[in-house]
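Now for one record.
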Amino acid sequence: MSAKKNHNNKFIFDKENKLFHKFPSQLMLKSELEMTLKAKELSDRSGLFYVPNVVDYTKDKLIFELLACNTSLRAYFLKSTKTFSMSKDNLVDIRKVFFNVGLVLGEIHSNNQVFLGVKKKYLDLEFNINEGDNVYLHGDFSISNVLYDVNLKRISVIDWSLSQLFSSPANYGPRYWDLTFFISTFFYASLSTYYSYKLREILVREFLLGYLEKTQIDRNIFSNNLGQFIYQFNTYELYDKMNNEKVSGLKSLLWQRSKSKLLSFSKRIEQDFL
């Protein structure tokens, strides 16, 4: 088998057989399998996005189809943009992609009935919202778990499990969790994207507009709740609280800049950014 393992042996890319092997804990495996199979039903029915097929599974391994010609949304963003400028055509294309990603997440959150066979495992966060804002969650809706096929113009969503920030699976809770996780991970700075926050805010706005178009929820309540949720539960804040290891050096500089820009953005959301 021509395969490539990741550094901690949690997954294997088998390009020869077009398979992706994943080795989550038994607790996480069951949850991810259930959510993936239901999400696959939704993706096939809606046609808005794609979920890779589960080819096989054992008690300690999930085997998915390996998607060809797909790149993460983060990689697509980096390839489509330049540090200081980008073409008008590229801007139109990438704005449409982010709007469509918002439609996709809105479709997922608006179809609780598809996931009803899956036992609810509540996200352990204290945040005061209406019950209607609790939905079945993707759980790890980061910019790296949303893929884009430029040739097919197709969005795919992978890794239907709670973020590794948590040790136990959860699949139900505030809709703002998936939204915040996506926005937080998109705001992470690198040396090549250090100055691109104006563009990021434009693309996040497209993402949120797509989400609102699909869900049709009250914009004022939505923007207020999302702004507060980002402030309290962004990935940087959660990582600092749940990990003893602190980032340092250049990574610390990028980390702090990312968090600062994200929190500033969250305040503008509350001020009727939409």
In short: Residues 25 and 60 are 7 Å apart (CA to CA). The chain is about 45% helix and 15% strand. The two ends are 50 Å apart (CA to CA). Residues 69-270 form a domain with the Aminoglycoside 3'-phosphotransferase; Chain: A, domain 2 fold (CATH 3.90.1200.10).
